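Deliverable D2.4 — example input (structure tokens):
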């Protein structure tokens, strides 16, 4: 495979789409061996076909705020690849959203969804709408306006969106209500639904729980576990909350959370009522973590900084892309980190990943570590199809099993000659093979 030529061509076609180009390069770099061993992939243009989305849909979303002022946002859905199942992936509402970010997320989603072993293709969507500071009625009107366009593009066997940054249970509810009205059908077209209208138990916790189950397997390769470990977590959203709850349950001590305003260092550990407080903080729609330090006086707030300067055994970035750079990685290594597990999508820059690998730190990439969220979305789709609801224990057991299997797939495809497990390569190769083989079977389409 001529990686530089493929990347040059892609750059020419999509200049300036930095996150998308970064994600494609990160994946292709690890596929060179497997493409060499399978000449049929090159002969059938699998690489060139898998790196371009099947289609990109963009639309305008006009809506009216509480003062009667008209706003126009952009809406997107990137349907990337449906070789192994309907397009599946979240919706992100954040002012930074653009096509490059959604294409990077949609591309990653193909391999992540393949790793779950469930029949789901890859997609992503969202809007540059900023939910921060908006009233519930404004959020409802925006979600309804967004769905007014999106509904024709999606369907339970076509494309099944879910949540991501800025989209949780509330937004899914508003969007589902509008879909149901337009389509006149009550079907599993979105995941992350409310429990009494088709949602699955454990889906809110699933990404964080799954990430911790995966990290537990990583620690297991060094014959250790979370008991007594100091853990630095970033973000304070859905993923961070689930991860913190599970780490605490397993005997670990989480000492940080972060928001766009800075990070909180709480040496006594974020547990019990403090985890509950995180939910209140999120529900305030303000997106700042500073108030935590007023509520719990033992905690310190560090304005404008990331938590990667604190001493920890395990680091779990759970906020956003490229939030952990080379210097942060060097700090973590210097402070003795043994395991870095990405709850967010692509939070570590390529230079940070190289640093972890160079120092043989256990490093789990987002597409493997955070796959529990979409895996549980897949379980929600299964329950919707069967028109039954599984118990909390049943969903959790399936999630745990899936995460163990993803870890095993990474070990099978990523173990190096010296025994170091390259989880980045393992996840990419395992995820890619299934999709590439399906594309081979289905001809050039
Ligand atoms: P949430 O919206 O619940 O939380 C994200 C939070 O992180 C927001 O409060 C956001 O604040 C904050 N944030 C953004 N940038 C930074 C930053 N630089 N430093 C610290 N905090 C920041 O989203 P999720 O928890 O759902 O998503 C977090 C990550 O996990 C994303 O990368 C997402 O793609 C990934 N993910 C989510 C899954 C899910 O099921 N929800 C599944 C798999 C992955 P603000 O908006 O003010 O910037
Ligand atoms: O990045 C992700 O995997 C998600 N935001 C969850 C997607 C889903 O369809 O549940």
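Example output (designed residues):
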């Amino acid at each position: 495979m001529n990686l530089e030529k493929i990347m040059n061509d892609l750059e020419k076609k999509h200049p300036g789409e930095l996150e998308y180009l970064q994600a494609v390069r990160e994946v292709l770099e690890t596929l060179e061996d497997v493409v060499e061993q399978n000449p049929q992939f090159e002969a059938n243009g699998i690489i060139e076909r898998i790196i371009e989305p099947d289609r990109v849909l963009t639309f305008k979303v006009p809506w009216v705020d509480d003062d009667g002022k008209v706003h126009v946002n952009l809406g997107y859905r990137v349907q990337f690849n449906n070789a192994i199942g309907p397009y599946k992936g979240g919706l992100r509402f954040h002012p930074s959203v653009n096509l490059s970010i959604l294409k990077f997320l949609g591309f990653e989603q193909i391999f992540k969804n393949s790793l779950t072993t469930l029949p789901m293709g890859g997609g992503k969507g969202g809007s540059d709408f900023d939910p921060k500071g908006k009233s519930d009625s404004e959020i409802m009107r925006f979600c309804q306006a967004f769905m007014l366009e999106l509904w024709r593009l999606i369907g339970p066997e076509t494309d099944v969106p879910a949540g991501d940054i800025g989209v949780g249970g509330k937004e899914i509810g508003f969007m589902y209500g509008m879909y149901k009205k337009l389509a006149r059908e009550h079907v599993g077209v979105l995941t992350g639904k409310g429990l009494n209208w088709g949602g699955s138990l454990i889906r809110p916790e699933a990404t964080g729980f799954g990430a911790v189950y995966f990290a537990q397997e990583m620690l297991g390769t060094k014959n250790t576990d979370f008991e007594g470990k100091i853990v630095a977590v970033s973000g304070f959203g859905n993923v961070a909350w689930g991860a913190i709850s599970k780490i605490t349950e397993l005997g670990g001590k989480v000492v940080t959370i972060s928001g766009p305003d800075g990070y909180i260092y709480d040496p006594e550990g974020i547990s019990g009522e403090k985890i509950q407080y995180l939910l209140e903080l999120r529900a305030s729609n303000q997106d700042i973590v500073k108030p935590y330090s007023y509520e719990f006086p033992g905690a310190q707030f560090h304005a404008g900084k990331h938590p990667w300067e604190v001493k920890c055994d395990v680091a779990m970035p759970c906020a956003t892309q490229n939030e952990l750079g080379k210097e942060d990685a060097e700090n973590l290594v210097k402070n003795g980190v043994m395991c870095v597990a990405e709850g967010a999508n692509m939070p570590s820059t390529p230079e940070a990943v190289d640093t972890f690998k160079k120092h043989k730190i256990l490093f789990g990439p987002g597409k493997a570590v955070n796959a529990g969220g979409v895996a549980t979305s897949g379980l929600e789709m299964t329950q919707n199809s069967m028109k039954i609801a599984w118990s909390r224990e049943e969903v959790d057991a399936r999630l745990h099993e899936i995460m163990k299997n993803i870890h095993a797939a990474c070990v099978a495809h990523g173990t190096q000659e010296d025994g170091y497990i390259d989880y980045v390569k393992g996840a990419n190769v395992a995820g890619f093979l299934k999709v590439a083989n399906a594309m081979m079977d289905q001809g050039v389409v």
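The first helix runs from residue 3 to 13.
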